[in-house]
Structures are given as structure tokens and as C-alpha cells.
Amino acid sequence: MSTPRPVLVVDFGAQYAQLIARRVREAKVYSEIVPHSMPVAEMLAKDPAAIILSGGPASVYAPGAPQVDAKLFDAGVPVFGICYGFQAMARALGGTVAHTGDREYGGTVLATRPDASVLLRDLPGEVSVWMSHGDCVTEAPPGFAVTAGTTVTPVAAFEDVAGRRAGVQFHPEVAHTAHGQEMLTRFLYDIAGIEPTWTMGNIIDDQVAAIREQVGEKEVICALSGGVDSAVAAALVHKAVGDQLTCVFVDHGLLRAGEAEQVEQDYVAATGIKLKVVDAADRFLGALAGVTDPEEKRKIIGREFIRVFEVAAREVAAAGDVEFLVQGTLYPDVVESGGGTGTANIKSHHNVGGLPDDLRFSLVEPLRTLFKDEVRQLGLSLGLPEAMVWRHPFPGPGLAIRIIGAVSSDRLELLRAADLIAREELTAAGLDRSVWQFPVVLLADVRSVGVQGDGRTYGHPIVLRPVSSEDAMTADWSRLPYDVIARISTRITNEVPEVNRVVLDVTSKPPGTIEWE
Ligand code: XMP
After folding, report:
1. Which of 60-64, 69-73, 81-85 has the lowest mean pLDDT?
2. Could you give the residue ranges of the DSSP H alpha helices within 32-83?
3. CB 3.0–4.6 Å: which of 155, 204, 220, 229 could bond 245 by disulfide?
4. Which ligand 1 atom minimizes the distance to the CA of 509?
5. Chain segment 256-292, per-residue pLDDT in tens
């Protein structure tokens, strides 16, 4: 694939590497994450435009703390050290790192010397930055100018512009650091001399060329789930090879109100994609009848999906020479499964890897280098409906795991109605993008007493679970305005029969998960 020269973000094991890589991309520069265990020769073989050493463990002196191989600095590649990477860089180049016993965590005021710095040029003399460290650099390496400090940390930023190297003790990648993105950008453009060429137009052109080269004249198939990733992946493949692509949408009847129509009508209208719809709702409902255990539900849904998809894929294959299957694998999946190359990380509920031998496909994964926010921008650039591009993450097993208890068509209908109200009110309040996800859950086996109209009722509770998150690994409950929650609650109890109570989940993750199941 024709990707540009990468900025390598060396991951020292903390959670910051992905964030740094995303910020570099925001500066329109292509980035890749590599483990700190990768030998320097292998990093250099990637022909990097620059290398960024990320944050990591608290101390460069900790037993087993990863060090930086000094060979990294001999290759003439621009280097930027952040936090732990800053200390590791100082140490490798002959500076001094000391255990001062003074820790700095959280917001700290940085005193800068903008006139003496390229990295901090034009910034205010005092900047609020995010710190998280125990040790500190007390002496910069020879040839480096010290350009900022705090009351605790004498050397909080240094640079050697001629040598195209710089470093900072704080975290420029986090939102709590003022002007952080400007600093990163200064490093990339003004110290490393990199051009901002990672733009949507170039990404599309590169991917279209790569897909054409991979697929040639062969036919391609893609399973659409209604989610953003498969929708964007398919649209990109369609742009590359047109009607050589056939999409299959297995409607398992577990989507939310309007979502199947969004795929079948709006998406097809926007892309002109050839779509085969399989209405399998009754089949899934039959297989799920009476099942209450969430893992059992997942297994059944996964199994039925394969069976239905297999039949559809055979029909498509019978019509042409289908050799390829599109997967919407994203870059975080690739990084987390530990591989740059390696095999695809296929989600279990869409486990098309379970297809029989005569239906094995080669994978086309056009989103493998992209982060979620880039996939969304790509979707918009390709003309996909906004509602689809900005859809919140939604679990493959759908509403089946948001009904606590057995799934039935009545219960699905009830949950769909409550969920639609929550979505409508969230949208009306302009808050769609301030929550990560907003599961609405039906406690189908719980009843409680209420009073509605003139009568006593014995109905079900609905749980509202709005959460904010960066990546679904951890989450916090969203502090939605009370009036929005009140409107949702009033409308649900008024408009949805058999629901007489609405409760708000105020648990973070951990200890709670996002879904109730
Ligand atoms: P939890 O509930 O584990 O969810 O905090 C984390 C994220 O994963 C989604 N999720 C699923 N996605 N199949 C999926 O495709 C599943 O079985 C599944 N279970 C949870 C959940 O919506 C959240 O975004």
C-alpha cells in the first residue's frame, strides 16, 4: 500500500501512544505506533520522517524500565521525546535525570522562553500543561537549549534545532495542556521539516489505488452491519471497483428504530452500491426464544449470522468470481492485536472466518491504517448520510443484549420505542456528540408498582445509560442536563406502554460495563 513516510510513535507501554499518533494525524502527518521493543534497525527500515518517544512508566531508573538505544540518535532522523521519552532521550544523549523526590501530577504552570525556542515560539510566557512524573531532567544534554521549566522541574523542555531534536516533560497530546497541538505541529513542521500531506483527498486516492491493485478484475463481497466502519469500508471499495462489489445486509431484527431503513434506503441512495438484503428477523427471534444468558444470546446470534451470510455469499458467488471480502478493521484493532501485518482481527459475532473452506475469501481492509475520527471524516468525504457517519457505537448482537431477560418481538418493540425517544431528545438538545454511547436498557424480568392515570400499574423499568469515553475501555456516566433526562423520562412513561419507571445509571466503567446485558 502506498502510505507516506511515517512518523513513528514509540510506545513505552502507557496509554498515551495512540493519542499522540492521533494528534500527529490531526496535523495532517501520517503516523504509526511501534513497540519500544522493536530494534532500531527495524524502525529505520520504515524510513521514518521522525520518531516520537512517548510517555511510559514513572521512572527511567525503575527495574526493567525500557531504555532508548542510542543508535536511534545516530541516524539523523528527527526525534521528539515526551515525558518518559524526554527523560530517556536526556539520559541517552548525556544529560542528567534525577530522583528529586518531587512529584508533579496534573495541571502545572510552565514558564517558557518563547523567544529562545522554535517549539514554543509565539506562545505566552506562562502556559498551563499536564504533568505526570516523578523523576526529572536536571541538566539538558550537550548542544540542547533549555526553553521551559516549572517550579519543580528545572528542565521541562529542550531543543537542538540544528540536530532536529526536541523534548518536553509534560504531555502536549492531552487536552489539558494549553497549546499542546501547536507544540506538536511546530516539531513536525519546523523542526522535523515534514509537509502536511495526510489529507482526506490523499487518503482516498491512495486507498482507491491500493484496492484496485489488490482486487484487479475480481468480485468483492461485504457484510454491512449498519455501523460506521463497514459502511465506510464498503463505500471506499465501491469507489475503487464499482459494481465488482456486492454488499450483503443481514437484518437480524435487533437494530434500533429506523436503522435497517438507513442502510437499505439512505446508504444505497448515497453510494449507488449493489445491496442484497436478507430479512432474517424471524429466524433470529426463533433461535433466541426463551434464552436469557447474554453469552448464549451472543453465540446464537453469531451462529445464525454465519448461516444466513453463508447462503447469501453462495448466491453472490454463484453469479461471479468472488475472491475478496471487505472488513472494516481499524488501526486501533491492528495495534491492540499487536501486529502491523498479521491476520485480521475478526469480531466474534461477525465471525466470517467460520465460513466453510469452499467459501474462504482474501480480506480487503481499507481502514487498517485509520483511526475512528478519520473513518468518520472519510465517510463524510465519500458522501455518506451524516446520521450514519455519526452513529454511536452499537453492539453487533444489538438490542438482544439490551433486553435483560428473554428476547421477544413485543419486548423489542417496547425497547425500540423507548430508545427512539432517548435518541430524539438527545439530538434535540444538541448533545449527540457529547456522549460516546447511550444504551437504553429494558429490565424485562423486573416489575415494580406505579400509578399512571387513575390506576395502579405493575410495569417494567427502563435504564438510561449515557456514557462518555475515549475508547470504550473505560467510561464515565455522562452528566446530561437534568431537564433533558426529565423530558426523556416523562416521554417514555407517557408514550411507551408497560413502562412505569425510568432510572439513570450513574456507574463508571470500571466497575460497571457500558452494556447491561
Ligand atoms: P462493555 O459493555 O464491555 O462494552 O463496556 C464496550 C464496548 O463494546 C460494545 N459491545 C459489543 N460490541 N459485540 C460488539 O460488537 C458485542 O457483543 C458487544 N458487547 C459490548 C459496547 O457497546 C461498547 O461500545
Report:
1. 60-64
2. 40-45
3. 220
4. 5
5. 999 999 999 999 999 999 999 999 999 999 999 999 9
Residues β-bridged to residue 158: 146, 167
Set out the domains of the chain in order of their start, with CATH numbers: 7-191 (3.40.50.880), 210-389 (3.40.50.620), 402-504 (3.30.300.10)
272 is in an annotated binding site: no
Length reported for the chain: 517
Between β-strands 499-504 and 455-464, what pairing exists: parallel, antiparallel or unpaired?
Answer: parallel
Task: Collect all residues with Cβ–Cβ distance below 8 Å to 35 and sequence separation of at least 6.
Answer: 10, 11
How many angstroms separate the CA atoms of 338 and 316, rounded? 34
The C-alpha atoms of residue 155 and residue 463 are separated, in whole angstroms, by 51
Q: pLDDT confidence of 463, banded at 50, 70, 90?
A: very high
181 Cβ contact list (under 8 Å, min separation 6): 23, 26, 27, 172
Residue ranges in 81-171 assigned as alpha helix (H): 84-92
- C-alpha 448 to ligand 1 mean position (Å): 28
* Spatial contact of 459 and 500, defined as CB atoms under 8 Å apart: yes
Read off the amino acid at residue 222.
C
Within 3-154, where are the H helices? 16-26, 40-45, 84-92
Of 245, 254, 250, nearest to 263 by C-alpha is: 250
pTM for this prediction: 0.89
In the prediction, which pLDDT does 345 show?
A: 37
pLDDT tens digits along 321-345: 899 999 999 998 898 776 543 333 3
The residue behind cell 516539531 is 187
On the question of a cis peptide bond just before residue 497, with omega within 30 degrees of 0, the verdict is: no
Catalytic residues: 83, 171, 173
R_g over Cα of the chain: 26
